[in-house]
Amino acid sequence: MNVEKIFARRGSLWGACALVGCLLANVPWGAQATTLAVLQQPALPTAKAPRAVLLGLARAGERLVAVGERGIVLLSDDAGVSWRQAKVPVSVSLTAVQFVDAEQGWAVGHLGVVLHTQDGGETWQKQLDGERAIALAVQVAERDANQPGGASHLAQARHMLDDGPDKPFLDLYFSDRLHGYVVGAYNQIYRTDDGGRSWQPWMRHVENPQGLNLYGIRAVGKDLLLVGERGLLLRSTDAGQSFQALKSPYEGSFFGLLGTRDGALIIYGLRGNAWWSDDRGGSWRRLDTGIESTLASALELRDGGLLLASQSGELLFSHDQGRSFDKRQSRSGGTVAAMQQAVDGSLASVGLTGVAADQDPRASGQP
Question: For the residues 138-144, what does the mean pLDDT come to?
């Protein structure tokens, strides 16, 4: 790929990030002094944190954990009724969070940040940042320069080094306490097999010659799936050793994906587009969502129902595998960037207006 074209697309990345709520980098592109400051400055405590822009939400056992701008991490132990701020060592915007159990979790964000917690989100430690990520990419690219395609990967790595450590991570997936991936802009993907103590650049394992942005990663059955910019859709059937491109049903960007308990796959993104597959991505059925707003989040409810949420705050409930939807508006009245079903069955969401304890799915026609 022409490396200059990657960086010419920076404006398009910024626009796409805005659609999924990741527009909140605390620094201008390439502002090195500010970059160093936010990587070293702890998130400031503020009573306004629950009303801050929040981009990610996860369950840690019975606890809810939300992440967002300026390194804010919020914890709720009462199903989203009240929230308190956690201690975080950086003040860069965080875009996504995942827990594998009640104690162990990870969050990712701008400037290549990866954070880890071992106490359910009370405190966090930085495991990776953009400077270290780029250094690792250059090191591996130099080592593999004589392999097929090695010269191109080395050129891209060196351009990333010259451009600076400001590339965001946008999603993550951990299968357990040891094994996980973080993904982001310009085909960034890193893998760990030791809980994040060390990271391996994984770009050469991904069939993405245009260096398109990676927006989502999830496991569906025994497969790993990646979605991204311009309809990018990739699957690994060998435990992440390689990711091959699948024929995409849509040319617009996908911002997320969901694997159901019975092995179905849902991908979703721009202009209300969502697609359903029962055969591991071999074929697709378009879901008639009835909206044109960007879909930002998807959730399988306890009873097996499907819930999609748009950036405009529209909630779409389905109990027939997406063949029909019951549309409601989020009680918060604002955008929805991420959502979770709390331990009591209620629906919690986060977005540009902060946290919201939304409507109880059981009170909306749900069992």
Answer: 88
